[in-house]
């Protein structure tokens, strides 16, 4: 199983129809007319064209133009069964999916590059705006792309859309102990990559981690609280990573009907392993053949032995 050593993509390559981001030829013609008129009138201005039934027809998207002269079809909101174009809501924001439009000859077509777009009402507090700017810069540094635009009293943070599923929403019931170990190694592979760049996440939890089982890769998201002050911030990632690993094991144990009291030793083992990893200090793991990766995997295998043995003993193949 491969493990990516670096993140080099900008947008995830997917079929946008998965997210109901589709247009009829008539709708696409209308979008192109809007873009061409916009280019001729405002070639350098970042303009947001909001949904206008008279112009767009029934297109359930917003046409977004960025300062880098890119155009996006942005999922408007969760409505009429179009939930696949909608990630969810935060305290002061919502996040939707968007597909970038590519220039082909004299027209624009929908590409297969899917992005995540965080929409925030114009903050009255300048700190919120500064945090969005900071998050954009971290996304650019970590994943190679991040763009923030301001229009119509809203901020739009355009980010890469990562492949995979939130770790908090994985199907733990069908996860083997080997896959659990792969997941834990992948989580710390992502954190080691971030620390190698001198960045500390500070909100490291399973709701901010996306796991792609095909490549055994974990992606960090939501860099609002991230920082580059290791002496002050190092301890936050340490304590948060202990909690994240504990939450993963809790989900696994619950899905496999392992009593919580039987996991006590595992929690203690995991805490010791993570503290040991942070004492190294945490170094970037380059792949499954990397000695660091092998060492981390061995540590997790030993830490999980109590529930590993129990899981195997309940498997009919071990009781023949």
TrEMBL record:
One of its GO terms (molecular function) is protein serine/threonine kinase activity. Signal peptide: none annotated. InterPro entries: Kinase-like_dom_sf (IPR011009), Prot_kinase_dom (IPR000719), Ser/Thr_kinase_AS (IPR008271). Coiled coil: none annotated. Residues 81-320 form the Protein kinase domain. Pfam families: Pkinase (PF00069). GO terms for cellular component: cytoplasm. PROSITE patterns: PROTEIN_KINASE_DOM, PROTEIN_KINASE_ST. PANTHER family: OVARIAN-SPECIFIC SERINE/THREONINE-PROTEIN KINASE LOK-RELATED, SERINE_THREONINE-PROTEIN KINASE CHK2. This is Protein kinase domain-containing protein. It comes from Legionella anisa. The lineage of its organism: Bacteria, Pseudomonadati, Pseudomonadota, Gammaproteobacteria, Legionellales.
